[in-house]
Design goal:
By secondary structure, the protein is mainly alpha-helical. It has 8 helices and 4 strands, in the order αααββαββαααα.
């Protein structure tokens, strides 16, 4: 006997249609977001691994941001130390040239210009902060403005306002590096060298015109002092350069780690677009087929048979 009731078929097809619509919705969302899921529940057994990876990503990103900031500051410190060293060398060359020529016609102008460059180097700023001031980064490291201040001050040390805090920064979980440089450590020797010139000028008058034998002998005696100061500045700049290299290498390593973690996380979270598009198309066909069958069942009711 042929069964004329279609309620059971309607129930089955309704269920199939709803299931096809759910699959279509999931596939459509994956294609749209390019992600397998929008929360950890969607990753099931990989949720714990994914959480650990994202935690590692955050830590690496933090170190990468820090190394970038430190590298920028080290670059500024290098420029500042270089300026102080170049000014010291310029002063030394001016003295040597005056001795060689037997004339100090422009010596004081050259020395004053070089000393101003030293001051600018010591007061170098990065992001509005004095880089050689220690923890007092909002305070100008030296109050000296001219060579006359060197002999007017009660001591060379009184011309420096920095504290003795040396900045230390972490490269990774286990390694910290002292990156700070202090103005008084850079400038005391330089100031003392220029102070000798100013003290002589205060006692004997400025260097002008042809040098006397006494002036020439005095200036010759200054050359080893300026050479020693320049050597110390080169050493300080080299130490800063080593730190620059360490943080540059650390940046490269951290970027590589960040890229690796991104790839690993993507392997869990990122959807295979070709596969997702295929599933979406299959789900759409399934919805269309189910809807068509459902519509055809509407014409298979008992009322149609009785007609």
């Amino acid at each position: 006997m042929t069964r004329v009731s279609t309620s059971g078929n309607f129930g089955v097809m309704t269920s199939n249609l709803m299931r096809a619509q759910v699959l279509q919705s999931i596939a459509g969302e994956q294609v749209s977001s390019q992600k397998n899921a929008n929360d950890l529940k969607g990753y099931a057994k990989n949720a714990e691994v994914l959480t650990a990876m994202r935690s590692a990503q955050a830590k690496v990103a933090g170190f990468l941001d820090q190394t970038t900031l430190v590298s920028n500051r080290l670059d500024v410190q290098d420029i500042g130390i270089g300026q102080i060293g170049d000014a010291t060398q310029s002063a030394r060359d001016a003295i040597a040239n005056a001795v060689a020529a037997g004339s100090a016609e422009t010596l004081m102008q050259q020395l004053n210009g070089a000393f101003n460059d030293v001051i600018q180097g010591l007061n170098t700023k990065s992001s509005g902060r004095y880089v050689f001031a220690g923890a007092k980064s909002d305070t100008q490291p030296t109050t000296a403005t001219s060579m006359a201040d060197l002999t007017a001050a009660p001591s060379t040390a009184s011309l420096f306002q920095n504290d003795q805090y040396i900045t230390s920064n972490r490269i990774d979980d286990t390694t910290s590096v002292d990156t700070g440089v202090l103005a008084d450590k850079l400038g005391t020797g330089v100031f003392d060298a220029f102070k000798q010139v100013q003290a002589y000028v205060d006692a004997n008058g400025p260097f002008t015109g042809k040098l006397t034998q006494a002036q020439s002998d005095f200036l010759k005696g200054l050359l080893p002092t300026f050479d020693s100061v320049k050597t110390d500045l080169v050493t300080a700049q080299a130490k800063n350069g080593l730190n620059q290299k360490r943080f540059e290498t650390a940046q490269t390593d951290l970027k590589d780690r960040a890229d690796t973690l991104t790839t690993m996380v993507g392997g869990i979270t990122d959807v295979d677009m070709a596969e997702a598009v295929t599933r979406l198309q299959a789900a759409q066909l399934s919805v269309q087929a189910s809807a068509q069958v459902f519509a055809s069942l509407q014409n298979s009711s008992l009322l149609n048979v009785l007609k």
